[in-house]
Write a structure and sequence with these properties.
Layout: H1 6-12, H2 14-20, E1 47-57, E2 63-69, E3 72-78, H3 84-99, E4 106-110, H4 114-125, E5 129-134, H5 163-181, E6 190-199, E7 219-224, E8 235-244, H6 246-259, E9 263-266, H7 272-276, E10 282-285, H8 291-295, E11 301-310, E12 318-321, E13 327-331, E14 334-338, E15 342-343, H9 352-363
Parallel strand pairs: 3-10, 4-5, 4-10, 5-9, 6-12
Antiparallel strand pairs: 1-11, 2-3, 6-8, 7-8, 11-14, 11-15, 12-13, 13-14
Helix pairs in contact: 3-4, 3-5, 4-6
Length: 372
């Protein structure tokens, strides 16, 4: 099958895309011109890999808090659920504000996922000496598997948080939103992309309702008439946000840390006594799901996420959100199809049933709808 590119897409015109797609909505409002969106070719033969990661989910939200182990100050920064990439700079900022001491020069960071790397970078920017201790480095971290869309989704359970946490959540989101904007461009693999919200009913509260503090992060929001877009969905809206090419981004961030003099030591921790024995007197705990057993946090649990990665399609430079299992992120390393959010599931083995479900639900977004 010939792969479409932006160049060939422009040359062949919209008719080629309409042919490649299984169909278009059966009806649209009077005078509404249909916008043809390059379709994703959802075919089992195009599956490049299937990946599974365990998100560190806490119903009460992320934890940024100081704990003393004898003379060692531990600054916890973990439990981001589905928002680890999005909130990484924000909670790193909160943690560094909590743990920074102008009389201390040497700091330790536990964990080399995106939260640990972001925390280390902010410390280095303040002139600190930083050593990262981690049992796994990129590409073996959970962060490498993350989809990478900027939006703090599935971070907490609404009934389990109070107004103080919500305010902290917004503050972390704001700092991260601004920081990622400074990194947009090819060097870090961060790009602005359109996100289409597809649904069976109007989703006016997605990604955040007007009047909500989170609505300040909703950029270029618009709603579409039925049939205005070439998706198989009765309702559609869109907003713009950033997309982080996580495998690439993590490599560059780790490079920057090393260039600034940061050290990385491969080391795991079996108990808090080993943490207290570190030579640094201030330690930032960014161990994600591992913080549960290490620091006795019974409130953290895995949220198993399985993704199906299709071969890349250069012309697919948008994302899809449905509010169900199906979602799609167009990345240069492949088309990311999601996905699952299975709380309490520790399995890292890909499930054939989950793969079939992900392919079927995403394929349906591009198939010919039933006639009205």
């Amino acid at each position: 099958m010939t792969q479409l590119t932006r160049r060939t897409f422009a040359a062949t015109g919209l008719a080629a895309v309409a042919t490649a797609c299984a169909g278009v909505p059966a009806s649209r409002g009077p005078g509404v011109a249909m916008k043809q969106v390059p379709p994703v070719i959802v075919d089992p033969g195009r599956v490049a890999r299937v990946v599974v990661g365990l998100r560190p989910y806490r119903p009460t939200g992320f934890r940024v808090e100081r704990e003393m182990l004898g003379e060692t100050a531990v600054i916890h920064n973990y439990g981001h659920g589905g928002g680890g990439i999005t909130l990484s700079w924000g909670t790193a900022h909160l943690a560094v504000e909590e743990g920074w001491d102008p009389n201390v020069k040497d700091y330790a960071v536990m964990g080399a996922g995106i939260v640990g790397l972001s925390t280390a970078m902010l410390l280095l920017e303040r002139g600190a000496n930083v050593t990262i201790y981690a049992k796994a480095l990129s590409p073996e971290t959970t962060s490498n598997i993350a989809g990478g869309q900027w939006w703090p989704a599935s971070v907490y359970q609404e009934s389990m948080v109070d107004d103080a946490y919500r305010a902290t959540h917004v503050a972390a989101s704001r700092f991260a939103f601004q920081r990622f904007q400074l990194l947009t461009g090819p060097e870090y693999g961060v790009t602005w992309e359109v996100n289409y919200v597809l649904s069976d009913e109007a989703k006016r509260d997605t990604p955040a309702p007007k009047g909500s503090p989170m609505h300040e992060f909703v950029v270029n929001e618009r709603e579409y008439e039925p049939g205005e877009l070439s998706f198989n969905a009765p309702f559609a809206k869109s907003f713009d946000t950033m997309m982080v090419d996580t495998p690439y981004y993590l490599r560059v961030l780790e490079r920057d840390i090393r260039l600034r003099g940061g050290k990385i030591v491969v080391q795991s921790f079996d108990d808090v006594a080993q943490v207290a024995a570190l030579p640094e007197s201030v330690v930032f705990n960014c161990t994600g799901l591992g913080a549960g057993a290490l620091f006795g946090d019974a409130g953290i649990m895995p949220a198993r996420g399985q993704l199906v990665i299709l071969q890349p399609q250069e012309e697919v430079d948008y994302n899809i959100i449905t509010g169900k299992h199906a979602y799609m992120f167009g990345r240069r390393d492949g088309i990311v199809l999601g996905g699952t959010f299975q709380k309490g599931n520790w399995s890292l083995e890909p499930s054939a049933e989950d793969t079939a479900m992900i392919l079927a639900e995403n394929r349906a977004l591009f198939e010919r709808p039933m006639q009205a």
